[in-house]
Amino acid sequence: MKKKKLAGVFLSLSLVAGALAGCSGDSKTSSSGGGSSKSGDTIKIGANLELSGGTASFGQSAADGLKLAIDEINKEGINGKKLEIVKVDNKSDAAEATSGSIKLVSQDKVVAVVGSATSTNTLAQVQVAQDNQVPLLTPTATNPDITNKAGKLNDYVFRTCFIDPFQGTVAANFASDEIGAKTAAIYVDSASDYSKGLAAAFKEAFTAKGGKIVAEEAYVTKDTDFRSTLTRIKSAKPEFVFLPGYYEEVGLILKQAREDGIDLPFMGGDGWDSPKVVEIAGADALKNTYITNHYSPEDEDAKIQDFVAAFEKEYDKTPDAFAALGYDTGYYLADAIKRSGDASPEKIRQALEDVKDLQLVSGTLNLDENHDPIKSATILEYVDGKQTFKTKINP
Amino acid sequence: MELIQQLVNGISLGSIYALIALGYTMVYGIVKLINFAHGDVFMVGSFVGFYAITVMDLSFIPALLLSMVTCAIFGVLIERIAYKPLRNATRIAALITAIGVSLLIENGLIYIRGAQPEAYPNNVLPMDKLDIFGVSISSQSILILSVSIILMIILQFVVHKTKIGKAMRAVSFDSEAAKLMGINVNNTISATFAIGSALAGAAGVIFGIYYIKIEPLMGVLPGLKAFVAAVLGGIGIIPGAMVGGLLLGVIEALVSAAGYSLWRDGVAFVVLILILIFLPQGLFGKNKREKV
């Protein structure tokens, strides 16, 4: 008897709570719906980035760059409106990235989503963008499948950076032309689409140049002990090691490789670009290593130097490539919103596609038919633990 | 030559497993509890060592001791708060609590300081390379192995020669009877947790110095591997944990050496399954017959 009564009370309470929640939910969505694209004076854009987790350094940098750009744009506003960033932390996790994008699109009613910083997490959001017809702009995800999978263009997806095959090809050309390597080893993170994409492009370009791949080894993200595999690489006697991974594992691999007496040149892509790689590996282990990257803060171009100064003033640190591309993505999106007229997702999509000769920090932006930017790559060398500008390579 | 190099790689990896497995196996031996939070105490120890070295500017030995003391206190707190109220509950309840404690520690630390990794400074211990006939052995891996062996010997001494060790063995044999003989069971169990957690703390600092990168979820996989190592050697048997850890490290290195580096973690758990099927008492365990 008593139990039944209690259950009754509980049931009615939960009903009331449910009804209340429903009410508040309704009022929220209707007000935000009114405030976003149709009337009101703000335009909401989503940012779905890695603010914590294994690749947080990338997401955080991109978020800082994006915020700086939006703050600058908001000084004047776009057609009398201000931009508002709605941030979601995807915790460097693909499943979180998907649900974060669903939340931004359906609950916050953003006109476009910026994110994520890595390929794996961006791939997880592509379907959400396509299904809901809301543009997705990744600042730094370089995997080709993001914009064009198996010959089918994802027409709502754009990016501000160049793609993996390009980075891998540039690295292969650098290895055979500048280093003069005839044989190379590839050490790839088999849990990362990014790493595998670069490795495949490197292999193709390097063998096309007459080089030989003498060892292909793999690890998975979060491994800490690489010595056994490094010993294998060492005994294969390559002249060059291509290591397209992310900074945490790359730092450990370089340190352990140097400790085991492997003094070969190592090269990677923009995944190395984090101060953590220097902290983990140490400046000595980084001697004789190179990366391909999107830009160099040492480049004397005026636009780059203005950006570097503004960023340093705001955050008290030098912007890495992720910050530069986050910043560029803010300007690319704002430019498209301005040209779109009514700031509806469909019009913005068209404007993003129609971009022509847009001047950004990381170069002049033009798209090819796959929505992939055509721009130059910078090669950096680590000297005393600092990235130094080595050369710039055009596509 | 490559094979010997791979053995050396395996032994340095295995010494870390052994060090974590020592504490694991000890707690199991006395309380019959699989303490899944042990890997997270190891993680906490690593962070304490990191802050001791970077913020408080301590050198290796003081940082190691500070971390061991902190972890000992932490381990006793965990035991008192989470496990003691369940002392007379079913084994499965205690096991589930242990998993809960493990998740609480991991996510608690992420809440406090975020999930981003930290890097130990590179110059805590001198890094010398010994080259013996083309096989390179780092001074640090020799240090890890010797610390593991020394701690194992001390542990054996404590368990077999001291009063508290005698009390531990009595509690492990029959805690009711031990109570009747005037042994303070609660204090004995706390002491067990203190020693086991101090070992985990030491392993944490050494891991940090050797592998540089530490993060809040770093305890999960080494914790599981240490569990495998403990079962391999015979859970509850101290030299068994040592041998199990080293063996597991060598097996993993050889799997990588054969070119199957992606299968390394998988093989560790296949070893666990095989041991449980064919030799459930472990390498060093006696085949005890159950009384009916």
UniProtKB/TrEMBL annotation, chain B:
GO molecular function, one term: L-valine transmembrane transporter activity
Key word Membrane present: yes
Lineage: Bacteria, Bacillati, Bacillota, Bacilli, Bacillales
Transmembrane portions of the chain: 6-26, 59-78, 90-112, 132-159, 189-212, 224-255, 267-284
InterPro entries in alphabetical order: ABC_transp_permease, BCAA_transport_permease
UniProt subcellular location: Cell membrane
Topology of the protein relative to the lipid bilayer: Multi-pass membrane protein
Pfam families, sorted: BPD_transp_2 (PF02653)
GO biological process: D-alanine transmembrane transport; L-alanine transport; L-isoleucine import across plasma membrane
One of the record's GO cellular component terms: plasma membrane
Keywords noted in UniProt: Amino-acid transport, Cell inner membrane, Cell membrane, Membrane, Transmembrane, Transmembrane helix, Transport
Database matches in CDD domains: TM_PBP1_LivH_like (cd06582)
Family listed: Belongs to the binding-protein-dependent transport system permease family. LivHM subfamily.
Name under which the protein is recorded: Amino acid/amide ABC transporter membrane protein 1, HAAT family
